[in-house]
Amino acid sequence: MAGIVVVFDFDKTIIDCDSDNWVVDELAATDLFNQLLPTMPWNSLMDRMMKELHSQGKTIQDIVEVLKRVPMHPRVIPAIKSANALGCDLKIVSDANLFFIETILEHHGLRNYFSEIYTNPSFVDEEGRLRDLPLP
């Protein structure tokens, strides 16, 4: 299988939901999200939601704990491990953000199975707030 590249989407593929919606819903910010959704582009909206959650006292650790509970089909992890064991080069192309993807993959011990993740950049700023940026 060497030389075979397997490309995964993340939301609704590796995980059984949309990671952005999962975090917003689990941290009880759905009403504000729905109110702002028609008024701004998705990445700007998610960056704003992370600002709002931070202003409500939600921490990065709160977000991490929510991400650890994200639903995943029980066959996904064995499939990823099998493809890797066969020598496939695994990559992710997604419109989720890097913090969410890496947090979930690390929680399940899968981060090192992927050679590349191409997605929206994100980082934790000096105030401890998650910033969600669009691809350049």
Describe this structure in words.
One of its GO terms (molecular function) is metal ion binding. Keywords: Hydrolase, Magnesium, Metal-binding. Its cofactor is Mg(2+). By secondary structure, the chain is an alpha/beta fold. It has one domain (5-132): Rossmann fold, CATH 3.40.50. 43% of the residues lie in helices and 19% in strands. The protein has six helices and five strands; from the N terminus they run E-H-H-H-H-H-E-H-E-E-E. It has helices spanning 19-26, 30-36, 42-55, 60-68, 76-85, 98-107, and strands at residues 5-8, 89-97, 114-120, 122-124, 130-132. The strands form two sheets. Strands 1-2-3 form a three-stranded parallel beta sheet. It has a two-stranded antiparallel sheet with strand order 4-5. Strand 4 and strand 5 (130-132) form a beta hairpin. The longest helix is centred in the middle third of the chain and has 14 residues, at 42-55. The model has no long low-confidence stretch (mean pLDDT 96).
User: What is the top-level CATH class?
Assistant: Alpha Beta
CATH superfamily: HAD superfamily/HAD-like
Report the strand count. 5
Work out the helix count.
Answer: 6
Look up the CATH topology.
Rossmann fold
The CATH architecture: 3-Layer(aba) Sandwich
Measured by DSSP, the beta-strand proportion falls in: 15-25%
Alpha-carbon Rg, integer: 16 Å
Helix coverage percent: 40-55%
Total number of distinct structural domains: 1
Distance from N terminus to C terminus (CA atoms, Å) equals 33 Å
Arithmetic mean of pLDDT: 96
Content-based structural category: alpha/beta
Major beta sheet, specifics? 3 strands, parallel
Order of adjacent strands in the largest pleated sheet: 1-2-3
Order of helices and strands: EHHHHHEHEEE
